[in-house]
Amino acid sequence: MSCNEKISTFAPWTLSNSIMNLLNKTAFVLTIALALGACKKKDQSPGLGNNYSPPVKDLIMAHSWIASDVLLNDTSIWSMMQDCKKDDIYTFKNNSIVTVDEGSTKCNVSDSQSTDQFWKSLGDYSNKMIFYSDTVEILQATPNLRFRRTDGADKYEIRMVAKP
Which of 3, 75, 124, 162 is 20 to 30 A from residue 20's alpha carbon, by CA? Predict the structure, then answer.
């Protein structure tokens, strides 16, 4: 009998019961494994190196941002900040420019309404960027923006919300 004839005449019921039980158990285990894998919760850290969201830089450029809090070593120092800095609007652009608009309250009346500063993503899915001249760690990119700069033992965290 040729190989093709053997394959064409093969019937699963011709296997012994022990082989059929083993095949059924294997199929069952594989089905459960695939089902659990399909139900696995996706990474919920938006844009931070996962394959489930847009690149971090796109998330940052999708909005203009207003600072909502500044923390020094996990303690808010927002109340110590000048009011004129609390309404500044940050717009990150694709050309490595972040435009900082003074908002409705300027710190100095003679200051320009907006200035351009430097920023750069250190990779599409990187959680690092250069902001002004500092390398900062992006902690969250959506729905709010949070990033941290470390200066020696001090950690500064800036929290921003999308401008309505």
Answer: 3
Distance CA 52, CA 102 (A): 35
For residue 143, say if its preceding peptide bond is cis, omega within 30 degrees of 0.
yes
Going through 23-133 in order, the beta strands assigned E by DSSP cover 64-72, 75-76, 89-92, 97-101, 114-121, 128-131
pTM, whole model, 2 decimals? Answer: 0.67
Per the domain annotation, does 76 fall within a domain?
Answer: yes
CA quadruple 99, 105, 106, 110: dihedral positive or negative? positive
Give tens-digit pLDDT for 118-128.
999 998 888 99
Answer whether residue 94 is part of any domain: yes
pLDDT single digits (tens) 25-43: 544 444 444 545 544 444 4
Structure tokens at 106: 């300027």
> pLDDT at position 52, please?
59
| Residue 34 resides in a domain | no
Confidence (pLDDT) at 164 = 83
The domain that contains 146 carries what CATH number? 2.40.128.270
